[in-house]
Amino acid sequence: MKRRNTKQIKIGDIGVGSEFPISVQSMTTTKTRDTEKTLEQVYELASNGADIVRVTCNEVEAATSLIQIASRSPVPIIADIHFQYKLALAAIEAGVQGLRLNPGNIRNEIHIKEVAKEALLAGIPIRVGVNAGSLDKDIANKYGDSTPEALVESAIKEIRYLEQVDFNNIKISVKHSNVPLMIESYRLLADRVEYPLHLGVTEAGPLPGGLIKSVAGISTLLSEGIGDTIRLSLTTDPIEEAKYGRQLLEYLNLRERNSLDLIACPSCGRAEVDVIKVAKEAQEALEEKGFPIQVAVMGCVVNGPGEAKSADLGIAAGKNKGHLFIKGQVVKVVKESEMVSSLVEEGELITKEGIEARLAAADKDAAKLAQKDAEELINMQGDINEFKSKARSVIEITSKQDIDT
Ligand code: SF4
Known about the structure:
The protein is of the alpha/beta class. It has 15 helices and 15 strands. It has helices spanning 35-47, 60-72, 85-94, 109-122, 137-143, 148-164, 179-192, 209-223, 238-251, 275-289, 304-307, 339-353, 355-360, 366-381, 384-404; strands at 9-11, 14-16, 23-27, 52-56, 77-81, 98-101, 126-131, 170-175, 198-199, 229-231, 261-264, 294-298, 313-317, 321-326, 329-335.
């Protein structure tokens, strides 16, 4: 997908804009005044995929804590400001790497410009963070509702204030909790400005609905080249939103894989094991190891290795056995009880030695054993490919009859 061309900005050492990889953001849920607890969560968020972390700055004690938090954090810190512009000034003084201002509740032009002048001196960016739920009242009244046009007008109004004091170090968000309206708001905004955009569905809610809404909204826009940094606003442990945000970008090939990608068949009547159970166990065991590879868990050998041949590593269930395969080639046949442990063992070796070396070290008899096992299963269950070809014949016959009539 071709990214929309934007201005480039820097939040600490993280670039945001079309020349930089799309970044993942998350937000702490601790009281900011509790410096140590907040820093602990920031570290955890960073190690689970957050490139940038936002922290609320809602009181003087929070602003004071930001001195330590911003200087000791492993990732850039953005101070989230609502209502009190003086806390924005304090956060700049504390050394944060970015600010988020809500135009819906800091509306005084003089105050906004004062913050922008200080941010300009400090060399830090401001996110103009419009939110449908806290839209500027005058604009909400004008449009009668939080429409995409209203959200964009609020963002543009704030940007003009910033630009009037030569402040261009800007990124923007126009978040809505309604996915189609969120998508429309960002599309409109992308046509009007060149600033990088921060994507998110606001108040998306708990799992799984919140995740589905976030992925639907964010992915639609990313597929159109819109969006430079993302946040999944989920009502769950923020560690999960950081992790899912990162995974989303990895699954879309927008970031390099640095975590496990476990794929698994949905299971069916042919499955020789409880695929759901094995996949869950494999996911837990492999995630703990942090292997950055794609691993497949397939319920039967009849179709498993072939269907998952793009996976770096996989296991398919045979008759009381597991066929361990690398890039679709069976390298070892193991006991059913060893399916998960053999994945972990081989995952370790692939990570250390590489795929080619592990294919070269394959058990020479494994392919034969696997073939024999697969044939036995086909004899028991019937050849699914034969069924498919018969099904095609039936369709062909039906369509011929259509033509004759
Ligand atoms: S891999 Fe086997 S068990 Fe899994 S869905 Fe396909 S045919 Fe069914």
